[in-house]
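Aim 2 progress update. The chain analyzed this quarter is reproduced below.
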Amino acid sequence: MANFKGHALPGSFFLLFGLWWSVKYPLQYLSQKVNKKSQRIYCFQRVDAIEGGLKVIFALIGMLAEQFVPDGPHLYLYSGEKHDWVKLMNWQHTTMYLFYGLSGVVDVLTYLSPVVPRGLDRLMLSVAVFVEGCLFYYHVLHRPMLDQHIHSLLLIAVFAGACSTVLEVFLRDNIVLEMFRAGVTIVQGTWFWQIGVVLFQPWGGPMWDEKDHSNIMFLTMCFFWHWAAAVAILAINYALTYCCIQRCRAGSGEPYISLTVRQQKCDTNSQATFLSGSDEE
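Predicted structure tokens:
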């Protein structure tokens, strides 16, 4: 949909998943740091399957919305009467949702069947993100300068997410890569909303001057403000998750996650080196 709703809908989906991942992955990492029970790992695997099902549902909602809005293509790709393509912009959005839906299907299959290779879910997700980037690259080709620029900024987050997700195929359960993916997904979500606001002014007001270079400069700066906000959200959610887990452990009598483990290891190593040196003397 070439309107505000067409950008707000995927933006909301990306924002919801990004915020969820910013809580889920710290919770998973900190829970397994001290207590590596198989039952707890299985619980997170079930969450992955539910997450995959939600992906499929959201993708179906997106595809139906793109196809069957009043001015949508209604599953017609080519008009024989006019000898022209029908609403290709809607079809491009539908294709993006399709690949995210396939990613959700692979997530569910990974949980249900041990035959599915480990890492295939991350690979399919990276393919979906890469397809999104390619579609949006050609989505705005030969469009006005402001339109091109604001979408090209989105591509930075998209392709960064695709690359980090590919790395997760080989570096499974890496908290740094998982949090990075959560961050760029949040940026995608908020920036989709920003694109809708800039191009369509849903709450009224004057339209942005598409030829004013100052607008290009401001939007570039604004994009990295979005990124800074995403980093702040990741840090806050990580800290809150850590505090909640510590409080739950204190109530149940389980051991704390010590923040001085690495320092203790360093002290132990240095002490051992000092003792071995004394023995040599």
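The chain is about 80% helix and 0% strand. Confidence is low (pLDDT under 50) at residues 261-266. These observations will guide the mutagenesis experiments scheduled for the next reporting period.
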